[in-house]
Design a protein that fits this description.
Blueprint: H1 11-23, E1 31-34, E2 41-42, H2 45-54, E3 59-62, E4 86-89, H3 91-94, E5 103-106, H4 113-123, H5 130-142, H6 147-165, E6 172-173, E7 184-185, E8 189-193, H7 201-212, E9 218-219, E10 223-227, H8 234-250, H9 277-282, E11 285-289, H10 290-293, E12 303-305, H11 320-331, E13 335-337, E14 346-350
Parallel strand pairs: 1-3, 3-4
Antiparallel strand pairs: 2-7, 4-5, 6-8, 8-10, 9-10, 11-14, 12-13
Helix pairs in contact: 6-8, 7-8
Length: about 350
């Protein structure tokens, strides 16, 4: 089993980060965790929230992909159920509200609710969309009475799909049993690996979208992640299975070339910010070749899509690792959003010393 890195936060990592600040005479303003990830990987928020509470540090969770968590016995617990102080959920991603609608939840007494309210009043429009608000209320009402019944079909279809996919030669499926260190995985996320077929995720996605009309949630170098939700029906799952079976039947299993072993993990380990994004926005800029850009300060946001996670942002020092990663993705069929030159033959840099 060869899935590349799927990020989750461990309590020791959080403790080390807090202690590093304490050694400098500083206190963390908050701990910010993304859980679940795009792939449905959930961090152990129980332990992290206990650590934060012992130091009176707010725990803020980006739970964009987890608005449904905690509503069914087969789903992982939600961030609030595990002690988070603030959690932001993109309700529209899995539940049945309209696109762009989301919720901010608060719990406990560490966070000043009056201050949060004032911040929202400063940032939000005074003319909200009542269509979006009504759809949020409808999504809430849908789960208000029998959430177990509401999710039964989607979870049953997800489990069935994983079971049938595992029978297809050359296909791998991300499961909790394969990664016992993961606290939990959202059963409604279906991550499928195609490397044994000699295909990158981008190549497989192009075929499945073109020939079968299958739309994914996330494409990686070695895998594709699909999102099932309350609107998923048996016909959708059958179309996905038919497409992947066809793909496996038409692609011979070959030894994975070395250039396909590039990780799905973006190069976020050695980020160096030379300018804050505001200063980078107002700085003088010029275009240079991609080779000349290495070591310079990025003047634009460069973001592979899907999923839309930036690899370079304005003000960040451009590294050779980041450039190689982006060019590799382009070579495998990824689309680049935000860049003035989507093929990255040139990059806009900040004209600074």
């Amino acid at each position: 089993f060869s899935f590349s890195l799927f990020l989750l936060w461990l309590v020791l990592q959080v403790l080390n980060a807090i202690q590093e600040l304490e050694l400098e005479g500083k206190k963390a303003a908050a701990v910010f965790i993304t859980s679940p990830t795009y792939h449905g990987i959930c961090s152990n928020l129980n332990d992290i929230s206990e650590l934060c509470r012992s130091r009176k540090i707010p725990l803020i969770v980006d739970e964009a992909h987890g608005a449904h968590l905690g509503f069914h016995s087969e789903l992982p617990s939600s961030a609030l159920q595990q002690g988070a102080d603030l959690t932001v959920q993109s309700t529209h991603k899995v539940l049945c509200s309209l696109t762009q609608s989301s919720m901010l939840h608060m719990s406990g007494d560490i966070v000043d609710k009056e201050k949060i309210s004032r911040c929202l009043q400063t940032l939000q429009t005074t003319s909200p969309s009542y269509l979006l608000l009504a759809s949020l209320d409808a999504a809430r009402a849908q789960l208000g009475e029998s959430p177990e019944i509401v999710f039964n079909q989607a979870i049953a279809l997800a489990n069935e799909a994983k079971c049938l996919l595992k029978r297809i030669s050359g296909i791998s499926v991300l499961e909790n049993s394969s990664f016992p260190n993961f606290p939990a995985i959202d059963p409604l996320r279906l991550t499928v690996g195609f490397w044994e077929l000699g295909l990158s995720g981008y190549e497989a996605d192009e075929i499945l979208y073109r020939d079968f009309g299958i739309v994914c949630e996330l494409v990686g170098n070695k895998s594709i992640t699909y999102a099932l939700n309350l609107g998923t029906c048996r016909d959708h799952v059958h179309r996905l299975l038919s497409g992947i079976k066809h793909l496996a039947a038409t692609c011979s299993s070959i030894k994975q070339p070395k250039d396909r072993l590039v990780t799905d993990h973006p190069p976020f380990d050695d980020i160096i910010m030379s300018l804050i994004p505001r200063d980078a926005f107002f700085a003088n800029k010029r275009k240079v070749t991609v080779k000349e850009s290495i070591g310079k300060v990025s003047g634009e946001l460069i973001c592979p899509y899907p999923p839309g996670i930036p690899v370079l942002i304005p003000g960040e020092v451009i590294t050779e690792i980041a450039v190689d990663y982006l060019l590799h993705l382009i070579g495998k069929g990824a689309d680049i959003s935000g860049a003035s030159d989507p093929l990255l033959s040139s990059i806009v840099i900040c004209d600074v010393q």
